[in-house]
Amino acid sequence: MTDSYRILVTGATGVVGASLLAQLENAAKSGAKVDGKPIEAIGATRSEKKKAALAANGSKAVILDLDNPDSSSGALHGVDAVFLATSYTASMCEQSKFFADVCVDVGVKHFVHLGVLIPPREAKLYVPLIAWHELAELYIKTTFPDSYTFLHAGEFLDNCLSYNGRSRIRDGTISWYSVPDRPTLWIAGADIAAVAATALLNPAHHRGKTYRLGTQVATISEACKIFSDAVGKEIRHEMMDGTQLYEETEREDPKDVGRLGYIKFIAREANRRRKDYEHRVRSGTTLSSDESRLKPFPDVEQVLGRKTMGLREFAEANKDAFLERS
Ligand SMILES: NC(=O)c1ccc[n+]([C@@H]2O[C@H](COP(=O)([O-])OP(=O)(O)OC[C@H]3O[C@@H](n4cnc5c(N)ncnc54)[C@H](OP(=O)(O)O)[C@@H]3O)[C@@H](O)[C@H]2O)c1
């Protein structure tokens, strides 16, 4: 038993986890309580160096490697609630299972998981990453039937600045792995974190719920127009070649077979979409209505009770990053 309500944030050095940790720390400073106890947020990372950086920033940090369940036992000691974000590989299946098992052992009361938007079965979209998330969540739901909260996110706006461990914008050009006319359902990482924080701070309202997080639909061409307008400088995009994306990932870490497996799929899909797009341009045709049918979900505004961060607000909030690299 501890005097505080401890919330462990995995992926605390990543896009969503870092923002979530900061938001929970602010809530703690403002005196937030759960179950009558003041909250205590703890960030987890695999790396001693990143742990030291978190601590230097005033955060509480622990070492946790999801590939080593023994490290979870130490990190989860006395923890009441968790936020689980995994990386982009099939390992997320066993990582999530073993992590959930240890969470049960230590008596975790609320399990928040960051997943992806799941297309309906009829869409016949066979995306490995989505399948891994679905399988991981089936186990989490079985293990925490009344105390899970699932966050199914669309495309992070943050990917426009950095993705696959790399800056994606240089000289005002976003190198993008999809095509100019295909709509995307966007969400800002900070808003995903805000939904996670709201759920973690009010578990009774959010246990057993799945939220679909996508707040604005736009193609990358439309997005660039909005970004340009917001930062006062032209932001363009170039279609990234799938093979180039794969080679870039391989150069970064040729031994990271899990990530390479995922990027291989993305690369193939990027090349297929590019061919389709070039065909559409040559033949003067457009996307089918099925392919272009995407709608934002109201969940984020409903959970947060405020307007969400759209593309314009994202660009304004990250103006320096857009301009620095322009
Ligand atoms: N990007 C998108 O558009 C999008 C859309 C929907 C869903 N998602 C999902 O979001 C998740 C990624 O979230 P993110 O973008 O916030 O993260 P991110 O910025 O890609 O960073 C990955 C985080 O995961 C941690 N991590 C990686 N392997 C780990 C391991 N073995 N043990 C413990 N921690 C590990 C890293 O921590 P350390 O390096 O510090 O250990 C890092 O903090 C993925 O599951 C992805 O499928 C992404």
UniProtKB/TrEMBL annotation:
**What residues does the NmrA-like domain cover?**
6-248
InterPro entries found in the cross-reference section: Ergot_Alk_Oxidoreductase, NAD(P)-bd_dom_sf, NmrA-like
User: Which SUPFAM superfamilies does the record match to this protein?
Assistant: NAD(P)-binding Rossmann-fold domains (SSF51735)
Q: What's the domain of life for this entry?
A: Eukaryota
A Pfam family annotated for this UniProt entry: NmrA
Q: What are the TM regions of this chain, as residue ranges?
A: none
According to UniProt, the name of this protein is NAD(P)-binding protein
